[in-house]
Request: fold
Amino acid sequence: MLGLLGWCTGITFYPEQVGIGVPQAVVGDEAQSFCYNVRESMAQLATTNNTFDGTILIPSDGHSFGQARDQYASVTFAQAMAPSVIVLVESESDVQAAVKFASQCEYSVSIRSGGHSYLGTSSCDSSKGQCLQIDVTGLNIREILPAQAKIGPGNRLRDAAEFLKQNGRFVPTGECPGVALGGHMQTGGFGLFARHFGPFVNRVGGFRIVLADGEVHDIVTPSEETSTLNDDIFYAVLGGASGSWGVVTEMTLNTIADEDFFSVYWKLGYWWDTPEDTEGIVNMMRTFSEMANEKIDDTRWSIHASVVGAKNLPGLGNRIQLEFSWVAPMEQKDEYDFDFFQKIDSACTGCTRFRYINVTEPLSQIWRHRYLRTLIDETTGREFPLPYTRSMQSLQAIPQPDGMESIVRATAALMPGRFSPHFVISQITTINEANINRALPWQQDKIGITLDYFYIPPTEWVIDHEQRALNFAKVLRDASDGEDHRMYWAAFDNPVMEKDWPKYFDNEEKFRRLQGIKQKYDPTNIFQNKMSIPMPTEGELDLATAANMQAINGTATTTNNSFFDQEECAVGSLVESCTETS
Ligand SMILES: Cc1cc2nc3c(=O)[nH]c(=O)nc-3n(C[C@H](O)[C@H](O)[C@H](O)COP(=O)(O)OP(=O)(O)OC[C@H]3O[C@@H](n4cnc5c(N)ncnc54)[C@H](O)[C@@H]3O)c2cc1C
Reply:
């Protein structure tokens, strides 16, 4: 693929510092006292020596609670980032205790790792029903294994990449340093290297998870020996609506060894200030389109374009950056064609280039040229401080040169002028077709384009910005196939899963199968968020059951959810063990 870039019933109240709300359904003094004395109750429920090592915060904890609930989406959806209780866990046993407590005391559960969901799906809104947020930042082990690595979900992308680099290993991920692996392993992990190796989700070979029953399950890559539960959960967690299934406490990554690959990285940066710049960039992106279409079957090359419109931010400016990678098994290194990428640079006629990097380095080291590290605020962990609206489309076809030109001109129209109080980021990333036993949708698409549109209040601007973002999405669809494909990680426009699922899932069979899995393993719908898989209604139950039976019997018709398909690799993947089958 090639790409541009809830709630349970009950009441919530906070009687005093030591106690939490008493749910309506719980009757009897003993049960009331159990749900009220949350700290003691969690210790009783903890499996390890009856001790609870984590921290429990409620709104009356003031500043600590406020800090803990703050996350990337808070600037845009502040009112909705309001859990009744936040549990900062330190161990798997803490997670079990929190899930059992939530279940017995009728809290819904949202799960947070890095808090980088754009819609805030790792938080919850206690005004809609009492809810408990489990924060797994403290679960951050890192351990190297032969050809694999064991990693905790609380690790941020930059820490995991640095750890792997020290061990000569690599996995493809997305772009932002503050994103954590807990969410990333479920929502994709699309970036420059996805075209060579598939998205991050495809590198997850197994994980440990606490399900709604409060038990830990060790999930491995499906095979004929694995159980239905194993295979259902593997499928659902890896791309089937993050936070709907249970709390992931650890994951095993199938890593890529630096020494097996020859890798070249280029970065070109051009200012985008004047109408002349726009014409040069139009020309360059038309060339991008021609090259991308010409090389569509050769997954050794990848291109990622990012536009940053930041004219009014000190030290920045309006600009476009193109990144290229050429990655091949070592024995093919002589096939690298320097002139191919050079063509793009020379197509930017009259442009002012401010950056040029061209390195041949091991995969794990290329990361240091890539992270948006200068933009991260170490106190909040956020990359960008302003509220935002956004849009994103995943397209089945790479736009032809005319389509690409319309996208560049639409982007130019959104670029901030010297006095306009906003900035934009738009990204174009090349990604790869895949055929795997994970639910991640739209992997067979060819290009995905995102727009992040930041604004400075007053709030009346929001409406204007939302409309602009939606208009931009239409330009993208019109430039390609017209289909409205959206990716979970980049959800926008206040999705309601009950009706919007066709935009987020490739086909009905996949969505119904996920509803069936939800019904089986989380029958009381404890794990909920804005975009979690809705329980099947009575009318949908037969469809959900049928989709599950088809999957279990291996008769599912879609290409990328073959239940017993052991092949984990993207079609055309550069990973050696993947290249024989497709
Ligand atoms: C600035 C920015 C840039 C981004 N760039 C990219 C990019 O280039 N490529 C890309 O693919 N994505 C990108 N993303 C999207 C990001 O990868 C996803 O939103 C990812 O899911 C965030 O993971 P998190 O753990 O940080 O977020 P969280 O908000 O903590 O979690 C995200 C989701 O995963 C669930 N979840 C988190 N941890 C667990 C767990 N341990 N067990 C079960 N469920 C869990 C949450 O409930 C939530 O639904 C970007 C996001 C931001 C804000």
Notes: The radius of gyration is 24 Å.
